[in-house]
């Protein structure tokens, strides 16, 4: 994939904040004067299409947010409602639950779009 300086700035932000999600509006403000709004939206679309970023809807903020893609179709996600931290939930108990929903209920969960909201340990203890 051709790497422009603007794309590199965006990717670097996501790679340095792997457990965070960012809205397009946040990115426009963050890179104000460096990257124009149209370029940010265009790059976000390209990065999502290339499976570099994952796009989900944040109901709390009523907007789409983007996060670095990490084989996200294979696990659930825990999202802290306070700090926005995302935990990629990979464990055998969750795998058993997913298999149970398929085998017993004939229901296939879209793991790429599945988020569970709550509070992370840091926010509870902080």
Structure commentary:
A 3-stranded antiparallel beta sheet has the order 1-3-2. The chain is globular and about 55 Å long. It has helices spanning 5-15, 24-30, 37-49, 92-105, 121-125; strands at 22-23, 53-58, 63-68, 76-80, 86-89, 115-118. The longest helix has 14 residues, at 92-105. The chain is of the alpha+beta class. It contains 5 helices and 6 strands.
Main beta sheet strand tally, sense and closure: 3 strands, antiparallel
Widest sheet: strand ordering: 1-3-2
How many helices? The count is: 5
Relative helix content: 25-40%
Instruction: Give the uncertain stretches in residue-range form.
Output: none
Task: Kindly report the average pLDDT value.
Answer: 90
Approximate shape = globular
Structural class: alpha+beta
Q: How far is it from the N-terminal to the C-terminal residue, by CA?
A: 41 Å
User: How many strand units?
Assistant: 6
Portion of residues in beta strands equals: 15-25%
Q: What's the helix-strand series? A: HEHHEEEEHEH
């Amino acid at each position: 994939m051709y790497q422009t300086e603007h794309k590199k700035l965006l990717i670097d932000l996501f790679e340095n904040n792997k457990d965070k999600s960012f809205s397009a509006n946040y990115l426009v403000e963050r890179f104000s004067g460096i990257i124009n709004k149209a370029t940010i939206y265009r790059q976000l679309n390209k990065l999502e299409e290339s499976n570099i970023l994952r796009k989900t809807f944040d109901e709390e903020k009523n907007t789409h947010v983007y996060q670095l893609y990490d084989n996200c179709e294979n696990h659930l996600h825990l999202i802290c409602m306070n700090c926005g931290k995302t935990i990629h939930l990979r464990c055998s108990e969750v795998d058993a639950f997913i298999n149970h929903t398929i085998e017993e209920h004939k229901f296939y969960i879209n793991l790429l779009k599945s988020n569970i909201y709550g509070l992370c340990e840091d926010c509870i203890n902080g």
